[in-house]
Amino acid sequence: MPTPLSPYSGRWVALVRGKIVAQGATRDEAFNAARASRRKEVVEIIFMSPIMDLPLLKTVREALPADQPLYLVGGAVRDSLLGLPTHDLDFAVPSGALKLARSVANKLSGAFFPLDEQNDTARIILQREDGTRDSLDFAGFRGPDLESDLRGRDFTLNAMAMDVRTGQPIDPLGGARDLREKLLRACSETSFTEDPARILRAVRQAAAFGFTIQPETRQLMKTAVPLLPRVSPERQRDELFKMLEGPRPDASIRALELLGVLPVLLPELPALKGVEQSAP
Questions:
Q1: What is the 3-state secondary structure (H, E, C) of the chain?
Q2: Which domain range does residue 56 map to?
Q3: In this structure, what CATH number is given to the domain that contains residue 116?
Q4: In the 8-state DSSP scheme, what is residue 145?
Q5: How many domains is the chain partitioned into structurally?
Q6: Res. 233 pLDDT band, cuts 50 70 90
Q7: Which residues are CB-contacts of 79 (< 8 A; sequence separation ≥ 6)?
Q8: FRET pair for 46, CA 20 to 30 Å: which of 27, 88, 239, 243?
Q9: E strand segments, the chain
Q10: Same domain (yes/no): 89, 130
Q11: What are the pLDDT digits (tens) for 20-40?
């Protein structure tokens, strides 16, 4: 069960003697708000994310070379702010992800798997004493820097990062704000033309989290529907099955119909609309 989402999750807060006295979307906002009422007091500014205390993340941090930059990205940051547990951590590094992952795997006695040597991507699997597994994925930046990497992702709620060493958040597209507003928004106007499978993923994640798809994003999805045949049948199938296994499969199917996806995804289905089920 998810824990209740703190009103301060994904926000900067100002502390005076351990008590929250102000908050803001940025460090400066929180600091200025606190100074307006507490001019003479010492103010401490921190970012509210519980994931920095995750034992698994601490383990990875301790296994890093001293000068190695590393950023937690994507779903783990999102789930932390939503109060959801995670056993899968995705990391981004400027370069050398394969070499770093192998080094971390050796220090943690984990199984190392090179996923894509050309794109500098690897996975570590850690086995716990109770038989459960943790998955750690390492990838080089998809672009010249971290911000370019984040801007190239699918939705703003998946385009947040955190410096593993300092806890500093990197959120160039306002993903934390969209989480608080329960809004699913594309990272760019080309999100769905670059990968039409994101149309299905948007419907699935909106249903899973109880979010509303931003109107502009919904229009981009409709426009990209004719491109869905470019997506392999296996990827289409996997997204559909995840929807059907999710908490609101009925809402997902209705959304697919409204978007005009069903004739492309399941061409046999429209002919069955309106057909009454015979008595048993």
A1: CCCCCCCCCCCEEEEECCEEEEEECCHHHHHHHHHHHCCCCCCEEEECCHHHHCHHHHHHHHHCCCCCCCEEECHHHHHHHHCCCCCEEEEEECCCHHHHHHHHHHHHCCEEEEEECCCCEEEEEEECCCCCEEEEEEEECCCCCHHHHHHCCCEHHHCCEEECCCCCEECCCCHHHHHHCCEECECCCCHHHHCCHHHHHHHHHHHHHCCEECHHHHHHHHHHHHHHHHCCHHHHHHHHHHHHHCCCHHHHHHHHHHHCCHHHHCCCCHHHCCCCCCCC
A2: 50-173
A3: 3.30.460.10
A4: S
A5: 3
A6: very high
A7: 85, 86
A8: 88
A9: 12-16, 19-24, 44-47, 71-73, 88-93, 111-116, 121-127, 133-140, 161-163, 169-170, 183-184, 212-213
A10: yes
A11: 888 887 778 888 988 888 888
Per the listing, tokens 């971390």 go with 104
Tokens representing residue 263 in the block: 């004739």
Place of tokens 């931003």: 214
Q: How many residues does the chain have?
A: 280
